[in-house]
Write a structure and sequence with these properties.
heterodimer, A: 128 residues, mainly alpha, 73% helix, B: mainly alpha, 8 helices
Chain lengths: 128, 239
Amino acid sequence: MSSIDYNQIMSIGIYGSAIGLILIGLYAVLLKKHLTKIVIGLSIIDAGIHLLFVAIGYIDKGTAPIFSPKGIEMMAQGKTMVDPVPQALVLTAIVIGFVVTAVALSLVIRLYRHNKTARIDQIKSLKW
Amino acid sequence: MKKILVIFMLAVIGYSLGTSFSTIKFGENRIGDPKEEKNVAAFYLNKTPDELSVANVITAIVVNYRGFDTLGEVSVLFLAATGLGSILYRRRKKGEHPEVITKPASQLLQSGSKLIYPAILVLGAYVFIHGHLTPGGGFQGGAIIATGLLLMMMAYKDFEIRHNVLTWVESIAGITFVSLGLTGLVYGKSFLENFLPTGNINDVVSGGIIPIIYIAVGFKVAAELAGVLETLLSNKEND
């Protein structure tokens, strides 16, 4: 009984915080006026999705998927390793997230240099 | 008004995500016994220690089983470095120097970064050389080395990374990656096939081509990140 409760609390906590991060990032992207804050919002969405991926791959009482001497010993005791595929995908996604952030920031710098402001409500050429 | 609409929309998105993910049980064993190879994860967990003698399963997936994907990922990084250079390109006026920071850094930052800088480089090299044994690898080690370079760029305004050196390091690392893959195609059946002896698990020299590729990836990522940081920092607004 107690283990079920523990699992439920963990699932609500981790899925909840991951979805919460995604929502916070979306809020920043949709409502903030400063371009740098929008880019920060995109990174927060990234972080939430990564957390969601790794949480789906988790196995109860699993060890890290590394066959170090300690890991081999724990495998011999009947413990399982967590799913390595989401972790490898997240490793790819982190790099792509970095690239997206860098290119977005460079576009922000370019816009700032052109318009002398980084607030989207003050950029006149957006209005018609 | 807009704010209320956005919050309502976020509530709808959050509710639908929450209900769909609450059906996935947290911590459930979906792999089963790795020996039975019922799914992809079990296949990787079963095959990695015997076939490749690599301790870190994630490294085996990223560099060997999905190595072609990693090649694409590294070229996306290269694309970002090139794209930043072309987006932020600005012709220098006469007598204008590519100054990084106008104010000199404080004494504390200067002496501290001089002390820490070699240690950061050694840590980065350790992380990508032991990428097949411990958590970490080429991308992480390269990022650590780039942070060391960023520290020096912030502390000393005349600290300059020559773009020639970065380009050479990047090109040699990329050529190493691709030529190892092509050699696998010549000696084996597929691109990036392991053609070197795999050795014993948990040795530093084990896993065939995987450590070589990860060291190349580490150098390439470090050079690319340093190039990105240098481009972003050296574009001073002065008009």
